[in-house]
Amino acid sequence: MNKSVTSEPQQSPISQFMETRVGQYSMNHPQQKAIDCNLPLSLVENKSFRHFLSVVDSKYSPVCRRTLTSKGENLAIERSSKLKTQLSKTDHVSVTVDIWSDRKMRGFLGVTVHCMEKDGERIQLKSNLLACDRFKGPHTAERICKQFEAICGECSIKDKLDYIISDNVANMRKAFTVCFPIEQEDEVLDEDHLDDPELWNDLTLEDQQTVDAPIAKKQGFQCFAHTLQLVVGDGLKETKVMTSSLSKLSKISSLLHTSTTFKEVFEAEFGERGIPAAVNTRWNSTLRQVKAVIQCDHLKLSHVLHKAGHKELLFTVWEWNKLKELVDILKPFGEATDMTQVEKIVTISSVVPSVLSLNHHLEQRKPQVHFLSDGITAPFSDPVYLKAAALNLAFSLMWVEHHVLVKEELAQRVKGRLFLHRLAIRVLAVPASSATVERVFSYGGIILWPHHAQMTDRLLSNLVFCKCNAS
Length: 471
What we know:
InterPro entries: HATC_C_dom (IPR008906), RNaseH-like_sf (IPR012337), ZnF_BED_domain_contain (IPR052035)
Order of helices and strands: HHHHEEEHEHHHEHHHHHHHHHHHH
Protein name: HAT C-terminal dimerisation domain-containing protein
GO molecular function, one term: protein dimerization activity
Strand order of the largest sheet: 3-2-1-4-5
Distance between the termini: 63 Å
Structural class: alpha/beta
Mean pLDDT: 79
Strand content: 5-15%
Subcellular location: Nucleus
Helix content: 40-55%
Number of helices: 20
Keywords: Metal-binding, Nucleus, Zinc, Zinc-finger
Number of domains: 3
Radius of gyration: 29 Å
């Protein structure tokens, strides 16, 4: 019996495999470059981390922080060169621009570039980070303009620019008025930039003007989301009847984040549910805050406030109903904001349908709404918004009233015009908001966590650039 047991083959202990050294990965092997979690570079020199990797994969070759920093610099140069090559093949681009300050109060100017590129049989919207460079000194319009022009000159895109999208801050708006002064009406485009010169020669003078006149001048555009922010923000300021309710709500949210006693009483009634804090510069954070509180039962919340000794924060029935009305009124504004801030799809064509939908929404609530409708349409009257909506098959001309529609035979004639393709690849590449460059700064904030605070501005720029242009 014992003999039969000992004669059976025994399984090798796992330590045998761990102790066996095999050939290590090269520095260019995908497994060697697999970690992508915005962790501090110093982690690679941590003794416990190195031991962990040696156990998980003995082929991993340890690297030092200095090597990673050097490789980050080289990778940024490589990807910048690749991006410039890609941009040299396109004739028209639009950009988003913004300024950000990191935890150490260092300023950075971010620029993202957007264009349509042919990918096989399809045309796709491409977005890349053009630069996230250190911006020193006061944020004046002239200095912003100078550094922006330097970035465009380095990437050879200044003559290809159609639109610049930024927020509504005065220095940004003035900067791009300086960059792109009003051009003469008789200025024509360089024929070297035509996608199909023969097709262009076949067009009548009237058709040529139809294509190029509205977009022949470089323009600075207001970010759609930021403009909605200003419209709704101004409306809320004028709505005096909501001031008391929103003030109470803000104090309740603050108590949940500062008072352990109130937090315990609240959790005893509502569990892990919370009420997020609102940010003054983001009205949609106020919307999320109001949504969170009205999901609580009014009577139960009143009981919690009474029990915690905060009777002054009790909502009356009238105030509670007004909060519900506020959510009904602002919810479509939140949806429109989200729709025009998505990535990798055309967004400018959503502006006109969104504005018309919001207008209709406000008209239906005329007795309740007095301050929002006046400011919703004026900033988006530029013809490029109309053209973008018409050129997008998802909307086409469905949003146009019937008596405005062109005659059927004219519509059929226009449908066969190939030059609309040339117009579409210029117009539909324009982003509706500056959300893309704002996401860049979000990456920067993640990379520069408190334990990364000693990171140089150059290294931060390189890491952000590589992260945003990874694909």
